Design the sequence.
């Protein structure tokens, strides 16, 4: 009787687990494919440091990547539109499941890069720190953490646009 119960549990459990995973990846792919535009950018630090203001002589927080729902163009160093076939590559990198343990990193989180998506004039983003392997995003379909293979592939992707690592 035990083997039958075990087999039934496996039959019921595995499809449920797989469906959830595929729907997450499907959602992520859908977000990128239906976007009006996808960009990769390098920018000034948006967190993790204090910035000296020459005018006031005081230190303060760095400017955010997004201000009032718009990309803060004042901090953007370089930006590139991601077109096909590179869009397929980016989707593949981000939607691939982690093949090894995620990298915890040092968590300095001083991001200098981002992936920016526009969908009907609404902006979404993934703000990325390649130094500590940290990121922030409001996109719920993005995994909480990435493994080494994903970070290496993403870094190569950004370098392909001549967006140097800082």
Sequence:
């Amino acid at each position: 009787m035990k083997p039958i119960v075990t087999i039934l549990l496996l039959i019921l459990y595995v499809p449920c687990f797989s469906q959830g995973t595929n729907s997450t990846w499907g959602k992520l792919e859908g977000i990128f494919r239906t976007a009006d535009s996808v960009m990769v950018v390098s920018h000034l630090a948006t967190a993790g440091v204090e910035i000296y203001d020459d005018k006031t002589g005081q230190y303060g927080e760095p400017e955010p990547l997004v201000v009032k729902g718009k990309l803060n163009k004042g901090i953007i160093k370089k930006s590139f539109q991601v077109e096909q076939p590179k869009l397929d590559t980016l989707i593949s990198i981000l939607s691939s499941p982690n093949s090894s343990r995620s990298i915890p990193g040092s968590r300095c989180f001083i991001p200098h890069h981002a992936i920016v998506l526009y969908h009907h004039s609404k902006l979404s983003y993934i703000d990325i720190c390649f130094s500590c392997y940290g990121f922030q995003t409001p996109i719920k379909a993005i995994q909480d953490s990435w493994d080494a293979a994903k970070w290496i592939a993403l870094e190569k992707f950004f370098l392909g646009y001549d967006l140097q690592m800082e």
